[in-house]
From TrEMBL:
<comment type="similarity">
    <text>Belongs to the mitochondrial carrier (TC 2.A.29) family.</text>
</comment>
<dbReference type="GO" id="GO:0031966">
    <property type="term" value="C:mitochondrial membrane"/>
</dbReference>
<dbReference type="InterPro" id="IPR023395">
    <property type="entry name" value="MCP_dom_sf"/>
</dbReference>
<keyword id="KW-0472">Membrane</keyword>
<keyword id="KW-0496">Mitochondrion</keyword>
<keyword id="KW-0677">Repeat</keyword>
<feature type="repeat" description="Solcar">
    <location>
        <begin position="215"/>
        <end position="302"/>
    </location>
</feature>
<dbReference type="InterPro" id="IPR050567">
    <property type="entry name" value="Mitochondrial_Carrier"/>
</dbReference>
<keyword id="KW-1133">Transmembrane helix</keyword>
<dbReference type="GO" id="GO:0000064">
    <property type="term" value="F:L-ornithine transmembrane transporter activity"/>
</dbReference>
<keyword id="KW-0813">Transport</keyword>
<dbReference type="InterPro" id="IPR018108">
    <property type="entry name" value="MCP_transmembrane"/>
</dbReference>
<protein>
    <recommendedName>
        <fullName>Mitochondrial carrier</fullName>
    </recommendedName>
</protein>
<dbReference type="GO" id="GO:1990575">
    <property type="term" value="P:mitochondrial L-ornithine transmembrane transport"/>
</dbReference>
<keyword id="KW-0812">Transmembrane</keyword>
<feature type="repeat" description="Solcar">
    <location>
        <begin position="8"/>
        <end position="95"/>
    </location>
</feature>
<feature type="repeat" description="Solcar">
    <location>
        <begin position="117"/>
        <end position="206"/>
    </location>
</feature>
Amino acid sequence: MSSTSDQGSELRSFFAGIGSGLTKMVVGHPFDTSSIKTRLQCSPPGVFKGPIDCLRQTLLKENILALYKGGLAPAISWGCSDALLMGSLHNYRILILENKLKFFTEPMPGSSDKTRLSLAGQALAGMGAGWTNGVVAHPAELVKVRLQNQMERNKSERKYSGPWPIAKEVYQQHGIRGLYRGYAATLLFRSNMAVLFSSFELCMRGFKKYEVNVSVGTASFISGGIGATFFWICALPFDNIKNRLLFDDLNKPQLKGVIDTATKIYKTGGLRNFFKGFTTVFVRAFPTNAAALGTWTYIMHAFAS
């Protein structure tokens, strides 16, 4: 990215982010909330033998639409949060470039008067974008986790019919603080956007440096998938902590915070317990984020032309 941006790109990046978020919903929601990853993380030991068994039980006890259970809230939130994520990412990149922050910018190869973000600059912009979109994503994830984890109950015993009753109840009983319980875990989790976007940029530069003959769309698709893989390697333990805090009873909480939750996760299963849902995440991560970043790049190029 050069020292100047296309006129209007600051606003276009937010609209392109909506397309990115909806792409994530269509491609990734069944893996995330078929409630495979979330249910594996939050269910008591022994309920599921693994991701395949979780998927099998979900389909047997409910139906294929269960793969999109709780999907309305994520569809809205991913559209909004990816608008914030990708829009703020683009604008943070511009801000860093315009201020020529030392260590976070570097000369553009082959040019004496242009600059670009260094990989550290990409990481800084990514972390800022992750924190920004966490404001929208956290309450929606609280609703999603609680809705999905009713699956262990009989249908007649399930308390909530959809996402809105959950959000309404939490807000009425606990206010804004209830909707943002466990927010520190979300900030830790979304700090790893630094890994995602710096890895993405490193791969994109590799395609250019070694003159790999692929389109920008293909390069962004592959780079997005690789970046997402590195992201989840680093972020999954924090995702596990976050989801358990979100699922905890707000009236009689069993978890006191990030450190207490991490300690209990470790005591019940060691380091492996932090990576519960590992298989599902990695099956989901590459295609979902590859498609989302490919969509965002395509829309940005379409707007520019």
